[in-house]
Design brief:
- This protein is an alpha/beta fold.
- The chain has 22 helices and 29 strands.
- It has an 8-stranded parallel barrel, surrounded by 6 helices. The chain has a 5-stranded parallel sheet with strand order 17-16-15-18-29, sandwiched between helices.
- The chain is globular.
- Bound molecules: adenosine-5'-diphosphate and iron/sulfur cluster.
- The site of adenosine-5'-diphosphate has 25 residues, from helix 13.
Length: 704
């Protein structure tokens, strides 16, 4: 039963000629599936529609080959075959009564056209962000052509069944935004200079789109109200708002955000729920059209407050809809405890940025809906009345236990410590990572409701305990611990350490060990841990803290989670001394020796303590022990032992959760189910066209 306080969230909202059935609006978000894995894409969006989102949008839908994001997957409307995968998508969304939104896009100089090799387009001659090429300043013919492509794509999108058509001027990724912004547009014709001139193209494209599809589709402008780049760019309370005021009633809705992407998709380490309000709040002051906005909203109270205070009309969501595609339905059914809240870690963004299909730390089923037939809320029924013993209640063990429990198996979950959560509990004690505890909290909350799951805290299991319990299926989820010897990506043997320097690991930092300065954090892991350990030590008053890394940047892999710049800035501001491109080669007598990775020149840095953030070792003692015991007791009741999570291959929390879910999904299921992986059938229907394209070519005159 829905709490009446949330009724307002279920009111319909009219967007031009169409009506969204409620205020839950899945804004466009990348996913690494798109037209490359169209069935996977359609299934993923379809599950969101099933979960109650009133509108479900695509990610980037390129309108023309001059906007080509290769190698990143994209949707496109370039030629006739492109409609097919999009129809899969609109059908999947419509099946559940949601509106389908098409984010028509042209990336201007923000793309690189690596597949199509078309010249890049831009308001002004401008270097490409990605490759050593430049974009061409668009002349009038280019502008006319661009308007034609957009109009044609809008018509196609309507034909394919989209209900909402985007005019996209946001994310620091779009041609239309580049025209708006002083810092990107240096033209001296009627499309540059004054604000009115810079806004001209956006106005024209909105008018074109309304004219083309406004009879049947809502036209939504996705717009960056603040570029957070200072007075040269768009500023919310100045030109950012003025542009909305000038075009206020022209589109059917405004989808508002800040840019670029690192500011828009901020992680919980840097921003809390509702962080875009200071910028979005200006928009409803100047338009009567519905306003959509984001802010990693997971709390229905915050959502209601946004609507009631007149900040937003529709609760835009990308990440919360990834972490919990059923968030609206759970609010509707009064099941707030079941909401799987996004933790703001940006693994979903990172997987896209490395060119992979989407992963999520909280929702291991995202991207697996078609590929493996997984569903975030539905589980295959247990095949028998088997019992399973899961050892270790970190993310892998917790997810495995909850999914097996949901399937209906009898589950026994044993955890050595009093606290559940394993690494998630430990890591959430570090600076800025408190929301990561949601990975534990959601799973513990689910387990608490199951009568077929027993949890044993403070139960460090031995091989003998396992044999004594006599449960035939045993899952070992005992995790991993950080190495202290310096072995890692760069040093493939232990780093020599003499007297006078104390060695610690992130595990020590997380358990609150006293670490005296000066401290050197040696980060050879490259993800978040090195940076967050240095930040935490500084905050705990460890005194002088320095960080050395063989990489050219601190926490380099966090470029994929959009955090690298912020992490390095935060460390510098906190007074952490940074030694980049430096390997740790030895330590003794209150000093460490660092070596330049290029010149091999060495330097000494004072350090009474070192925190080694290099690599982890799987905790396999128990696994080995039980295998030995089973070897000597062939008649034992224990029949199958499987490792999951970090105790196979230490990795991300997302990987541990996935591993736990995978065991549960595949337990007692036939192997054939697993073979659907990556099996998107390819239709070879273009062979004839390929041949005909070559018929009219003269054969080159070879000299032999
Ligand atoms: P993962 O990320 O793979 O889930 P974690 O390191 O987060 O791994 O969690 C492993 C959990 O296993 C920890 O909470 C740890 O206390 C627990 N554990 C380790 N060894 C044992 C054991 N012998 N018996 C019970 N629990 C154990
Ligand atoms: Fe949220 Fe992290 Fe999942 Fe992305 S990966 S939706 S940030 S929990």
């Amino acid at each position: 039963m829905r709490d009446p306080r949330y009724d307002i969230l279920f009111e319909p909202v009219k967007i031009g000629p169409v009506t969204v059935k409620n205020r839950f609006y899945q804004v466009p978000h990348c996913n690494g599936l798109s037209a490359t894995l169209p069935r996977g894409h359609a299934a993923m969006r379809g599950v969101k529609a099933e979960g109650g989102w009133g509108a479900v949008c695509t990610d980037i839908l390129s309108i023309h080959p001059s906007s080509d994001t290769t190698p990143f997957p994209q949707n496109k409307l370039w030629e006739s075959g492109d409609e097919k995968p999009l129809r899969l998508l609109t059908d999947a969304i419509h099946e559940h009564g949601a509106l389908a939104g098409a984010q028509l896009a042209h990336g201007g100089w923000a793309v690189a056209n690596r597949l199509t090799r078309e010249p890049l387009l831009s308001p002004t001659d401008f270097p490409s962000r990605r490759d050593p090429i430049q974009a061409k300043a668009m002349d009038k013919a280019d502008i006319k052509a661009y308007r034609g492509w957009h109009r044609r794509a809008a018509l196609k999108a309507k034909e394919v069944g989209f209900d909402l058509i985007y005019v996209y001027a946001a994310d620091d990724l779009e041609l239309l935004q580049f025209f708006l912004s002083r810092r990107r547009n240096h033209r001296i014709d009627e499309y540059g200079g004054s604000l009115e001139n810079r806004t001209r193209l956006l106005r024209e494209v909105i008018e074109d789109t309304k004219d083309a599809v406004g009879d049947k589709c809502g036209v939504v402008v996705r717009y960056t109200v603040d570029e957070l780049s200072g007075p040269d760019g768009l500023v919310a309370e100045e030109e950012g708002r003025d542009i909305v005021a000038m075009l206020a009633e022209l589109p059917d809705a405004w989808d508002i955000k800040v840019s670029g992407w690192p500011e828009d998709s901020q992680t919980s380490r840097f921003a809390k729920e509702g962080y875009q309000e200071p910028y979005a709040k200006y928009v409803k002051q100047v338009t009567t059209k519905p306003v959509i906005g984001v802010g990693r909203f997971t709390s229905p109270d915050t959502m209601v407050s946004q609507v009631k205070r007149g900040i937003l009309d529709l609760i835009g969501s990308a990440r919360p809809s990834i972490a919990d595609p059923f968030l609206p339905r759970k609010i509707d059914e009064g099941r707030l405890d079941d909401i799987r809240e996004c933790i703001g870690c940006n693994m979903c963004v990172a997987t896209y940025n490395v060119g992979a299909p989407i992963n999520c730390t909280q929702n291991p089923t995202i991207g697996e809906e078609y590929k493996r037939g997984w569903h975030p809320e539905r589980y295959r029924r247990a095949k028998s009345d088997a019992s399973v013993l899961v050892i270790g209640a970190g993310p892998a063990g917790l997810e495995c236990a909850q999914a097996l429990g949901n399937r209906g198996y009898e589950v026994h979950l044993a955890e050595a410590t009093r606290e559940l959560g394993g690494r998630v509990t430990r890591e959430s004690s570090l600076n800025g990572l408190s929301e990561w505890a949601r990975v534990r909290d959601w799973r513990v909350g689910q387990l608490a409701k199951m009568t077929n799951v027993s949890i044993y805290r403070e139960s460090r299991m031995t091989g003998a305990d396992i044999l004594e319990m006599g449960i035939p299926t045993v899952v070992i989820a005992t995790g991993a611990s950080w190495r202290s010897d310096g072995f890692g990506r760069t040093n493939h043997k232990a780093v020599p350490v003499g007297q006078g320097v104390r060695i610690f690991t992130p595990d020590d930092v997380m358990s609150g060990a006293q670490i005296d300065g000066p401290v050197l954090v040696f980060d050879d892991d490259d993800f978040y841990m090195g940076g967050v350990v240095a930040e935490t030590l500084k905050a705990r008053g460890a005194g002088s803290v320095s960080l050395a890394t063989p990489n050219a940047m601190v926490s380099a892999w966090t470029a994929n989670t959009l955090e690298q710049f912020k992490i390095q800035r935060r460390l510098l501001e906190a007074g952490v001394e940074l030694h980049v491109t430096r390997n740790l080669v030895s330590a003794s007598s209150g000093e460490v020796e660092l070596e330049c990775v290029f010149t091999k020149r060495r330097q000494k840095v004072q350090a009474a303590s070192i925190v080694m953030v290099t690599a982890r070792l799987p905790e396999i003692t128990l696994y080995d022990e039980i295998l030995v015991q089973l070897g000597s007791e062939p008649g034992a009741a224990v029949k199958a032992i499987t490792r999951i999570g970090d105790c196979i291959t230490p990795g991300t929390i997302a990987a541990a959760v996935f591993s736990g879910r995978r065991f549960a999904e595949e337990f007692e299921e036939p192997q054939a189910d697993m073979l659907r992986i990556a099996n998107e059938p390819v239709e070879i229907d273009n062979v004839e066209r390929f041949h005909s394209r070559h018929e009219d070519r003269t054969v080159a005159a070879f000299p032999f």
